[in-house]
Amino acid sequence: MMTTRACLTAHLLTICVDLGAFPNYGSGGGVRGGLEAPQGPPSFMVFLRPAISFPIRHQSHAQSHLKQILGEELNSIQAAGTWKNERIITSMQGVTITAEGSQGELLNFCANNYLGLSSHPEIIEASQKALKEFGAGLSSVRFICGTQSLHKELESKVAQFHGRSDAILYPSCFDANAGLFEALVTPDDAIISDELNHASIIDGIRLCKGKKLRYKHRDMVDLDLKLQEVKDARLKFIVTDGVFSMDGNVAPLPDICKLAEKYEALTIVDEAHATGFFGRTGRGTEEFFNMPGKVDIINSTLGKALGGASGGYTTGPSEVVQLLRQRGRPYLFSNALPPPVVAAGIKALDILMSSSKLLEAVMANTRQFRDGMSKAGFTIGGENHPICPVMLGDAKLANTFADKMLKKGIYVIGFSYPVVPKGKARIRVQLSAAHSPKDIDKAITAFVDIGKQLSVI
Predict the structure, then answer these.
(1) Which candidate among 135, 176, 195, 263 keeps its CA 20 to 30 Å from the CA of 128?
(2) All domains of the chain, ordered by start, with CATH?
C-alpha cells in the first residue's frame, strides 16, 4: 500500500506530466505506466527546478480582452515616441560603465550618483561587512523583528545630519512620501503642493483625506492665494521639492517660509536632489539659502548621493516620527531595509560629515560643464546645480541627439512629454564628483560636434 505522502507525490507528478513538465516521463512506465511511486518522504525539489517550464494551455476570454486593451495602450506609447527602453548595464555604477549593445566603456552623465559613492570602496566594504555580520535581510517589518542596531544608528545619523529630533527609514523616498501625507493630513487639514512636484509627492497627497490644492510652479503670488483659500483649516501644509529633478531649479524657500509664517502653515520639503551635495556642507536647500532649521519636515533618499543603493527617510519633530511609526502604512507593512543597504548609508554620511572634498568636486564639475556649454551656445536650464538640462525643445531631436552621443561614448538620456512639458524636451546631464575635468571636456566636445550636425548651435 502506498503511504499518504507517496500518493500525494504520485498525484503531483501526474499533474506535472499532464502539463508537459516531463515530456519523456511515462513512456517506459512511471505513474501512467502503472509503476508504483517510490515509498518514503517525497522530494518536492524536482518540481522546483529552474529548467522546468510549464506551457500555457489556457487563456480566458477576460485575459484575451485585457491583452487587447493593453496592447493598444502600449502601441500608443510607442507611436507617441515616449517608449522607455531599459539599457542593460554590465558593470558597477560609476562615471565609466559598460552596457549591452555598446562597444567599450561609456562615460555616464545620467546617474543620480552625485558624490560618486555608488561604487566607492569604503561603501562597498561597509556593505560587505554588514552582510557577513547582520545577514542579507530581516524577513520582517520593523515592529515585529526587523529592527537592528544598524537601523537605529542610521536613523540617529540622519537626524543629526539634518539637525532634527528624530528620523524614520523607509524602503524608498517614494514610500516616505506615500506614508507621510496619509498619516499626517486629516479631513480638517489642507495641503498645498507645487504643480511640478515629484510623482511620489503627487501620489502621496492623493492618499490623504485633507483638502488638496496646487500652486503654479514657484509662483509665490499663487501660493499666497491658495493659502487664503484654506486659512480656516486646522493644519496647513506647504509641500515642495527642494530642487526639481527635471529642471535643476530651486524652490524659493525663503519666500515659502515667509508665507508659511504669515498663514501659520507648516513646510515639507523633499530633498532627494539636494541631500549630501547641495548647500555649503551638503545639508540641502535650507543651507543653500542659509536658513538652517526653517523647514518643519524633510523627506529625502539614500538612493541618490548617499551611496545610491536604496532607502528613504522622513526627519523632523519626534512627535511626527513617532506617529509615522504607529500609522505609516509603507513603514508598517514593508520589510526593513537590508543591513548592507543600511551600512552603506551610515558610511556615506560618515564620509560626508568628515570631509567636504566630494562636495567641492561636484560643484567644481558643475561650474565647468555649465560654463563650457553656455559658451558653446547651448541653453542650459536650472540654476547652479549638478542637474544641467540641455534644452532642445523637440522630442525627436532630443532622442536623436542622445543616440548620437552614445555613439561617441557619452551616455545621456533625452526627456520629453509627458515627463516634461510639451515643447520643452531636453537632455538631462547630471554631474558627479567622480567625473574628471577631462571627462567633462570630452562630453562638451561631443555635445558641440553633434549640436553643429543637428543645427542646434
Answers:
(1) 176
(2) 4-48 (no CATH), 96-116+357-453 (3.90.1150.10), 121-354 (3.40.640.10)
